[in-house]
UniProtKB/TrEMBL annotation:
Converts 2-succinyl-6-hydroxy-2,4-cyclohexadiene-1-carboxylate (SHCHC) to 2-succinylbenzoate (OSB). Keywords: Lyase, Magnesium, Menaquinone biosynthesis, Metal-binding. Its EC number is 4.2.1.113. Belongs to the mandelate racemase/muconate lactonizing enzyme family. MenC type 2 subfamily. It comes from the Bacteria. This is o-succinylbenzoate synthase.
Length: 377
């Protein structure tokens, strides 16, 4: 397939509810959508999961726009490629900027699957027609608020509850939720809010039978996490620390975690995600698919990835309605009793709703082999 056009849309959507992590609160969600067209007029869609502010990772919407416009699109435009795995090779000389790479690469995967008349799940080698999903709940002000929020999502059928914690809003909140729901699969995500000085506190969590604690220590650490894993019983899961298969190998060899959260954008795309999947499957490290509060386009990619067999734990891919008044795909992603049925349409399997996409588009830029740069549309 020949890459003839890359269209980048600057989107602005607002989530139904604010979402709070150990870093702060977000509700407005600017992000980028990428549409890649081939010589036959087929198109594939991808989403950049970078946020407007670099609190989770160093990339932002603006750095991604720059990379996509000025660096990555010029490398890809006009190229004739036979498989999306080639995209990561074409981008290999560019350091990091994984979310920007992934937005384009994801669009090429969708395009490829559509051309081959396959679902994206099939193109990736996925084996499930339904996936199990959990939900991620932001930091709450009080134990009572967390218990009530958790109750609502258990009633909706989500298969595992993840609570965001931070210093001052941790052990007592987890205790209250565990007492209220003795059997529910529960976990906590600290988004790097603790240090090894907090080992005694993190050890206290052992009594609540959490399925894991996600990224308790620094975003760029794998050494201290190994020390922590030695000291506590709760399995450690890495999120922010993992940007590639190489990072995964180091973490697994060092014993820094027993579980890995795969985010397609954080690791630079579906090709790298699949490599991580295959390695972890061989090593017996269970995976689940994380989320970045995506619109339906990114959500659809997460659904497809989760069909790979070693995604054995419920992910954070909740239904569209958990985030948005209206999503930008048709149909929306729907979770029933904690399961999402994998769509059967070609490519990502959900149709981008152009009317809604236009409604939330602030501006767009179109790149072609001729412009191979920054033509403002
Ligand atoms: O750490 O997994 C995280 C949201 C934004 C940034 C980081 C994280 C999260 C979530 C929510 O936990 C995931 C989702 O519901 O999409
Ligand atoms: Mg996390």
């Amino acid at each position: 397939m020949k890459i003839q056009e890359i269209r980048m849309r600057h989107m602005e959507m607002r989530m139904k509810n604010p979402f709070t992590t150990s870093f702060g609160t977000m509700q407005d969600k600017p992000f980028l959508l990428v549409e890649v067209r081939d010589e036959e007029g087929n198109s594939g869609w991808g989403e950049s999961v970078a946020f407007s502010h670099p609190w989770y990772a160093e990339e932002t919407v603006e750095t991604n726009a720059h990379m996509i416009r000025d660096v990555l699109s010029p490398l890809l435009l006009g190229k004739d490629i036979s498989h999306p795995d080639e995209v990561s090779e074409i981008f290999a000389g560019i350091r990091r900027n994984n979310m920007a790479k992934s937005a384009i690469e994801g669009a090429v995967w969708d395009l490829y699957a559509k051309r081959e008349k396959m679902t994206l799940a099939e193109a990736l080698g996925g084996t499930k027609d339904k996936i199990d999903v959990g939900i991620s709940i932001g930091v709450q002000d009080s134990a009572e608020a967390m218990v009530e929020t958790v109750r609502g999502f258990i009633e909706e059928g989500y298969k595992r509850i993840k609570m965001k914690i931070k210093p001052g809003a941790d052990v007592e909140i987890v205790r209250a939720v565990r007492e209220a729901f003795p059997e529910v699969p529960l976990m906590a995500d600290a988004n790097s809010a603790y240090t090894l000085d907090d080992v005694p506190l993190l050890k206290e969590l052992d009594e609540f039978n959490l399925t894991m604690i996600e990224q308790p220590l620094a975003h760029d650490d794998i050494i201290d996490h190994a020390k922590l894993q030695e000291a506590i019983e709760t399995p450690v899961c890495l999120d922010e620390s993992i940007h590639s298969l190489e990072d995964v190998k180091k973490a697994v060899e060092l014993g820094s975690c027993r579980v890995i959260n795969v985010k397609i954008g954080r690791v630079g795309g579906l090709t790298e995600s699949r490599k991580i999947h295959d390695y972890c499957m061989e090593k017996g490290i269970p995976l689940w698919c994380g989320g970045m509060l995506e619109s339906g386009i990114g959500r659809a990619h997460n659904v497809a990835l989760t069909t790979l067999p070693n995604f054995v734990l419920p992910g954070d891919t909740a239904g569209s309605s958990r985030y948005w008044e209206e999503d930008i795909i048709e149909p929306e992603v729907v979770a029933v009793d904690g399961e999402i049925t994998v769509p059967s349409g070609y490519g990502i399997g959900y149709e981008p709703d152009l009317k809604k996409i236009d409604k939330y588009t602030v501006s767009e830029e179109v790149f072609t082999p001729e412009t191979s740069g920054a033509e403002q549309a």
